[in-house]
């Protein structure tokens, strides 16, 4: 870097295998076009992102609930300068939307012109498989 | 609980420090802090080191051990504290607690971060992961500016805060940074410079963002008995430390116009220090992004919610105003070596309380001698508020 004397560290590549056994229904649901949350059988708390254990009452008995799709956008940003692992993507818009069940979702917002995006506008939450094969979900126009 | 005082502080030059490795960088802060306290390295019984990313953006995974050996500490108790961008304050709290609880007489809080040994996209990647990787980074690639941009857009929509208001924060902090010889940037800027700079994550532009910085800061604390024994002439007392935290997922926050962790940490600090916000004479607040400083004014009670922009517009947070904020240039101009920032804030508040601000032009006039340091980790994931008095 800028000609200052330095030596290069040894190189490692870091990839972690993240277990999803306990939320498998969620990931499989995305493949089928559904977005699931979990609901605590004991106290009724709805969890999104889906959680196998209830942070409210610490019960581990959960039902899987399919979420509705209409969301009100609470905030957003257009991410121009991207991190290392997103360098291959064009700039993207991230938004947080609130569903009628009361839970909020953070996801990419696509299909809108930048000038149309407003706090308070409506969008639809949909499940998606990316071109790279990743399972995800995003907000799109109603 | 015993009374605890700050008896010595040291600070490295902040900036692109590829002339030194991480151990050498800690030495630049540790040595002057020991000299300031009038003690030797062997007197330090316990050292807590704040670092969020050592092992990721620099090569040493256990920097507390490396720094202790390099700086000649003689086998003290050691721990590394991680509280993201509040790691330095977490280290300060740990060192404070060791003394307050009676377990040590002299302890050190050392902040160090060496961020520029990796390229910028890699540094952005590590900081972007400082939330909930699985649910909010893996598929969505949020960056640190993007997290705060979510707050900026919501704050602007709710309260009419403008991009010009945000720019005023950057202009103020660069003004004072230009008077601080250890700051990363020592250059004044204009509102137009900010508004015309490149967009990083809308509405935040390059000059709304703190830089990626290398730096180290060291704080030495001692018990009241030790202060007397050493004959310290200007001890700065820890009046109260408040702390809180926020949800890992941004989607679980009730709103995006303030940081609940800041509100709770500040209230706890005021209560412990037995002071009210209007008794605070100056502060260092966590201005990693310009919107963060405006939210901090509101969250820690320098003004009502939604009136932060008014405070900066009126110049109330400059010297001569109601509550001078970030007279060292803040994270914005001084730089934000993540795990160092908390200790750097304590350094600045201590120097101000001793009326030793290196450049007199940025010395705050004092009557009550009470200052506050507000240090947020992540995006309101952690918060520590520390009140000091002479």
State the main characteristics.
heterodimer; A: 142 residues; mainly beta; OB fold (Dihydrolipoamide Acetyltransferase, E2P); 5-stranded mixed barrel; 1 helix; 6% helix; globular; B: alpha/beta; Peroxisomal Thiolase, Chain A, domain 1; two-stranded antiparallel sheet; 14 helices
- Going by CATH, the homologous superfamily of the domain at 4-118 and 212-230 in chain B would be Thiolase/Chalcone synthase
Unreliable residue stretches of chain B: none
Shape of chain B: globular
**What fraction strand of chain B?**
15-25%
- Gyration radius of chain A (Cα, Å) is 19 Å
CA(first)-CA(last) distance of chain B:
19 Å
Shape of chain A: globular
Q: If helices are DSSP runs of H or I spanning 4 or more residues, what is the number of helices of chain A?
A: 1
Broad structural category of chain A: mainly beta
Number of domains of chain A: 2
The total strand number of chain A stands at 8
Order of helices and strands of chain B: EHEHEHEHHHHHEEEHEHEHHHHEE
Q: Can you give a write-up of this model?
A:
The complex is a heterodimer of chains A (142) and B (390). By secondary structure, chain A is mainly β. Chain A has one helix spanning 24-31; strands at 36-40, 46-47, 62-66, 70-79, 92-99, 104-109, 122-129, 135-140. In chain A, strands 4-5-6-8-7 form a five-stranded mixed barrel. Chain A has a three-stranded antiparallel sheet with strand order 2-1-3. The model of chain A has no long low-confidence stretch (mean pLDDT 96). Chain B has 390 residues and is α/β, with parallel strands linked by helices. Chain B has a domain at 4-118 and 212-230: Peroxisomal Thiolase, Chain A, domain 1. Chain B has helices spanning 22-37, 63-70, 87-100, 120-128, 133-137, 144-159, 163-177, 191-195, 224-230, 260-273, 290-299, 308-313, 330-334, 341-353; strands at residues 4-11, 46-50, 77-81, 106-113, 199-201, 204-205, 215-223, 236-245, 282-284, 370-377, 382-389. In chain B, strands 3-2-4-7-1-8-11-10-9 form a nine-stranded mixed sheet, with helices on both faces. In chain B, strand 10 and strand 11 form a beta hairpin. The longest helix of chain B is centred in the N-terminal third of the chain and has 16 residues, at 22-37. The model of chain B has no long low-confidence stretch (mean pLDDT 97). The A-B interface holds A 1-2, 4, 6, 9, 18, 48-49, 74-87, 89, 92, 94, 96, 103-108, 118-120, 130, 134, 136 and B 16, 18-19, 59, 116-117, 119, 121-122, 124-125, 128, 132, 134-136, 139-143, 145-146, 149-154, 157-158, 198-204, 249-253, 255-256.
